[in-house]
Amino acid sequence: MADDTPNSIGMCDDQNTIQVSLTGIERTKEIISQACVDGMISLAVELLSANKELCAQNVRWLDHEGEEMSTPPIFIGIDYGHVELVSNLLPLHYGGAIDTMRAGCGDYTALEWACWVGSLNTVRILVEEGGAKVTEDAMVLARDEGHSTVVDYLQQHVDWYAGLEGDADAMMEKACREGDLEKVKQLVDVENYNIEQWKGEDGTCIDLAPMYSAVRNGHVELIQYFGEKGMQLN
Question: Which Pfam families does the annotation name (predicted)?
Answer without folding.
Answer: Ank_2
